[in-house]
Amino acid sequence: MSTVRPSRLVCAVDVGTRSARAGVVQADGCELAREICAFPLLEGPAQHRTYRFSDIRIAVRQAVSAAVDSAGVEPAAISGLALSATCSLVLRDAAGEPLSTDPGEGDVVAWCDHRAADEARDCSQSPHALVDRNGGFISPEMQTPKLLWIKRHRPVHWQRLGQALDLSDALAMDVTGVPVRSLCSMVAKWPYDGRSGWLVDYLRTIGLEDLPERVGFSIPIRLPGTVAGPLSGSAADAMSLSAGIPVAVGLVDAFAGALGATGMTSPNAAGNRLNLITGTSNVIMSVGSTRAGASGFWGPYRDVIMPGAWVSEAGQSAAGALLDHLLELWSPGGERGGPSHAEVLDRIDQLYASEGPHLAGDIHLLPDFAGNRAPFGDPSARGLITGLPLERGMDALCRVYWRGAVSLALGIRQLLEHGGMPWDGDELAMLGGFSRTRLLIQLFADVTGRRMVCGEAGDRVIDGTAALALKAAGDNRDLASIAAALIDRTAAFEPVPDASRLFDRDYKIFNTLQKQRYAIDQVG
Fold first, then answer.
1. pLDDT band of 421, cuts 50, 70, 90
2. Per-residue pLDDT tens for 477-519?
3. How confident is the model over 188-218, as pLDDT tens digits?
4. CA distances (Å), 72 to each of 4, 58, 68, in order?
5. In the chain, fewer beta carbons within 10 Å around the N or the C end?
6. Residues 33, 23: Cα–Cα separation, whole Å
7. Secondary structure of 16-29 in the HEC alphabet?
8. DSSP string, 401-470
9. How many other CB atoms are found less than 10 A from the CB of residue 175?
10. Distant-in-sequence, close-in-space partners of 34: CB < 8 Å, separation ≥ 6
11. What is the C-alpha to C-alpha distance for residues 52 and 98, in angstroms, rounded to an integer?
């Protein structure tokens, strides 16, 4: 194996909905290697979505080991490790053993598990600053409703529960043996306030006053980028790293993406940078000096990415997941093993070149197949498709798929036009899965009327996670400076005026469909 002798190197891991990605990154932003390893999402009835932590552990360790090997570096060259992940909920019993709530399910409740929709509504009924901080509605994707569901529906399991952690915190504990929670996950996803601690008064009103004791209230809570603990020998051996290197306190994956995008765009007049993080779900995130919140929007949160910075966010529960669904639902002839996303996007590119923004303009969608996270805060909302012709085949699939993508961009436009939020500004940093396809980047620019700025190399979630690892490894710069230095080249996509005007029509129809859906819901 050839040996590379670069500047300080770290390893960064991003655990998404179905896979773990690991990158070996230099302090100057050069990514020497990136590897990916999939793990199964267990999809049960009644919107149950779980993982086995052991599957995630294997994927993380294999991805890291492969990345180190691909980078051609010795383990001793890597000076730190950080892990970011979705806000999934890891359950342990009093003895520290995995705890599943149902046979055949895993011990990790996935972020996209919506079994606790009723509990989310109940959690939202009590007037409290926590409810206000979450836009007036506690999402079933957050940890409080999920834990309330366990107490109500699985009381025996609730009595056995001895610890519950966000996935990124559980992963850090797994490789260090040291229990630590990130302030990011605690403030954004748990009944916790950075200044007053556990919100016991709120928990008492919803019947969860014993939650802190059940989930491990004594576990210390630390800022992202501080040291969670040293890498254990067993984890080091499995990942081809050196034992004892610092492991950073991590971030929820979207927050890591926002950190990694630092420096890609300029602050707006309110002192905030705007980010569009795309993937299984889509999230707009504002990070900066302005404290702002509104109905249907999450935040503001302080210090959850960087000390002193406020974060506000809004999102769509199904984005990439919607396109996955359309691909599976609309396969030509209904056969299995249909075309891939890349093949569909290539064909759409050809169709768009000849038809332009008019492509499939008679088909309209509402993308809320997994509920509406914002601006309505309604997990029971469902998607709509109108204008379907009686056609099958590849081009028919491409037209429906394209209009699904248009609906996602229209949803982001709606969030950006929501009053009371710090969304003013001409540009957004766009990152995640959609930012790897020029056609989709241009679509979001045209529909929103905003410039989209994308990195030409690297991965922003990996970069944000790498910034945490560098900080934990002793970099004396602040996190913003570390993250900004990791950005190499960017490309800007300007909205095309003619296309934007045509999408204005679609936006009017989008809003009309939402009103019609509400009217239908009121019937009977």
1. confident
2. 999 999 999 987 899 999 999 999 999 999 999 999 999 999 9
3. 999 999 999 999 999 999 999 999 999 999 9
4. 6, 22, 7
5. C
6. 6
7. CCCEEEEEEEECCC
8. HHHHHHHHHHHHHHHHT-TTSS--SSEEEEEEGGGG-HHHHHHHHHHHTSEEEEESSS-HHHHHHHHHHH
9. 26
10. 21, 22, 23, 24, 67, 70, 459, 462
11. 9
* Six token digits for residue 211: 């939650």
b vs e for 152-163, b when ≥16 Cβ sit within 10 Å of the residue's Cβ? Answer: eebeebbebbbb
Nearest CA-CA partner of 475 in 6, 73, 74, 9? 9
Tell me, what amino acid is at 434? F
Report CA-CA distances (Å) from 471 to 31, 65, 228.
17, 22, 12
Cβ atoms of 485 and 27 closer than 8 Å: yes
Query: In Å, what is the CA distance from 42 to each residue of 9, 88, 99, 144, 189?
Result: 35, 13, 15, 21, 22
Q: Which of 105, 92, 103, 142 is nearest to 121 (CA)?
A: 142
Cis previous bond, 300, omega within 30: yes
Written as one letter, the residue type at 146 is: K
Encoded tokens for 450:
């905003």
